[in-house]
Write a structure and sequence with these properties.
Layout lengths: L22 H17 L2 H10 L1 H17 L3 H12 L3 H11 L1 H13 L3 H6 L2 H4 L6 H34 L12 H24 L5 H27 L6 H11 L3 H13 L21 H22 L8
């Protein structure tokens, strides 16, 4: 039996100073693992379908109008009037706005347990003791959440855009806003990046994915309910001044989905979204000031990522 009483040897790779694999290979492995775990989750695809419901309904309605245009002359005239009154840009704001709750669920599936479950299983001992830096780990985790959330936002919108571009060029689908596709892409990139940053920040605070899920869902609903409730109270106040009304409109955007919708309105250059024949969809608050909206979104994202950076730490071996 050995009587050695020396310090415990550090057998990790922390002291390795040789050649490492290219950084792109290290974070890509982590991102791929995260993405595969997400898309294999049965509820991910159900939530993607749920987030696409507005685009699906619009395609069905437009197909019905096409059939009406091939029928009687009167039906064709009414269908043409409806298509002429349709604001195509507004349909993407509608689809994005009505999908916000589903995007929450997708972000939770993709990211709530990404770091929390690693904390629970002590997987960080494995990740950060190998030739993998904290930057590799965090970048891989962020991309692994951003990609499925962004795809869930963008793919249905792209499908609807292609549908409209192929069938409704004569009704101003492209000519009304030639930059519409780029606007939609930018809108979804910012929305997905915001969700990815925020959910990773929450995940890093816990050792269980369920706790992180409860926290993120709670943040979503509490901020949404409180801001909408306060906005209604202020806007309905007797003899409210214009400054009070402006404050009420600003409070509408002080929530997770509110920030995303506000940024979407800025990118799409639209205030009020309407459906057929000019019917208001209820989201009739003017867009926020761009500098303030982007400042809030980027600031919250950076704070969340800063929290992740501080919470994820390499293992220290005491000699």
């Amino acid at each position: 039996m050995s009587n050695a009483t020396g310090p415990i040897a550090d057998l990790s790779y922390r002291t390795y100073d040789g050649v490492l694999d290219p950084p792109t290979q290290r974070w890509k492995v982590i991102a791929k693992q995260q993405i595969m775990r997400t898309i294999q989750h049965k509820w991910f695809w159900r939530c993607v379908t749920g987030a696409s419901w507005y685009y699906i309904i619009m395609i069905i309605v437009l197909a019905f109008i096409d059939s009406a245009m091939q029928g009687s002359e009167r039906g064709a005239q009414q269908a043409l009037e409806q298509l002429g009154a349709l604001d195509w840009t507004a349909q993407f704001l509608n689809g994005y706005s009505f999908g916000q709750l589903w995007y929450l669920f997708i972000a939770v599936i993709a990211g709530a347990g990404s770091i929390a479950n690693d904390n629970k299983s002590n997987a960080l001992l494995v990740y950060l003791s190998k030739p993998c830096t904290k930057k590799d780990y965090l970048w891989g985790k962020w991309v692994g959440v951003f990609v499925p959330v962004g795809a869930a936002m963008l793919v249905p919108a792209l499908f609807f855009y292609l549908f409209g571009a192929m069938n409704y060029r004569d009704f101003g689908f492209i000519s009304d806003d030639p930059w519409l596709l780029l606007r939609v892409i930018a809108m979804t990139i910012f929305g997905a990046a915001f969700h990815a940053s925020l959910v990773l920040g929450v995940s890093s605070m816990f050792n269980q994915g369920r706790m992180a899920t409860a926290m993120y869902v709670g943040m979503y609903f509490i901020t949404n309910i409180v801001t909408v409730f306060l906005g209604v109270i202020i806007s309905e106040a007797h003899g409210a001044r214009e400054s009070i009304q402006t404050l009420a409109e600003g409070l509408y955007y002080c929530s997770i989905d509110g920030i995303n919708i506000g940024i979407a309105k800025i990118f799409l250059d639209i205030d009020v979204a309407t459906v057929f024949m000019g019917v208001d969809n209820g989201i009739n608050v003017d867009r926020p000031a761009p500098l303030l909206a982007f400042g809030v979104m980027i600031g919250i994202s950076l704070l969340a990522l800063r929290l992740v950076w501080k919470r994820v730490r390499a293992v220290e071996v005491v000699g």
